[in-house]
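User: Okay, second chain of the day. Same drill as before: sequence in, structure tokens out.
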Amino acid sequence: MFEPEELGQRKDELATGLRDARREAGLTGARLAARCGISQSKISKIETGKVLATATDVERILTSLGTSQDRIAELRTLARLANTEFQSTRASLRRGLHHKQKELAALETETEHIRFFLPLMITGLLQTPEYARASLAYFPGDHRQAIARRLDRQSALYDPAKRFTFILTEAAVRWQACPPQVMALQVDHLASLSELPNITIGVISLDSHVPDPPLNTFTVYDERITTAETFTGVIMMRDPRDVARHLELFAFYERHALTGDRARALLESWARRFRDLAPSASLFQRRNYLITVIPELASVAGALPCTVCLSIVRSRPSRGH
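Assistant: Same drill. Structure tokens below.
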């Protein structure tokens, strides 16, 4: 077992350990590169800490060096720690949650296909402004800037070069984080986004038999990085074995999800149920909601009105909206 604070803190030790193992074996960087099939340039960058060695890199290097089993076990552990990072919620709050949104935007920018598995909550890229505000309500501090940046990240959804796959359970969609009329608008927003050609939104109904219950929310960025969320932070994993396991899990849950028209029909039925819980939510009240939300956020992110309008009006979205 590892302490969370240890994760991601052993990169320098791993680089030094691999360099020392090569020297003990009496090999130059060029000879090691020829043996293990990794370029000499990458070997040099790994040993100087400029490039983080993956678990696969470590296995190939150690096999080529003929390192002792004890040393192999030690360096494997270092590789696992170095490739797994824990980002605590407390640290994010101290820095300001808007910094976290900036980091997520950078990660999304460099990724072509992002897969989200959402068992209990709707993720930020899919949230309406009011839902986003409710999701941060129990964190101390003023989070208007974080909400604005979260909504601004949603512009990536309209980039045709990117693919997004969201798998949500019925519990995630129907968990009433906001008043019923706001939840109805949020569910409408999911149905609208599902019509974009580069977005797949799948829904797992509680009526479905799914033999492997989910444990947590996770996201997979291409085939490079997996993040898993807990109550106290986010674990970021770069080890190919961890990424592969989460891709397997994602494919499993995706097979049990409804998509396309069947998902939209289910979402629309849930939106109607929320409206039935709030029959007094008139069109005037919804317009009033639009008027109160936009001024609060538009000063921080100038592109928000288009994003907010999608959240309020149930219509077929277009790439240019």
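The chain has a mean pLDDT of 85.

User: Thanks, on to the next one.
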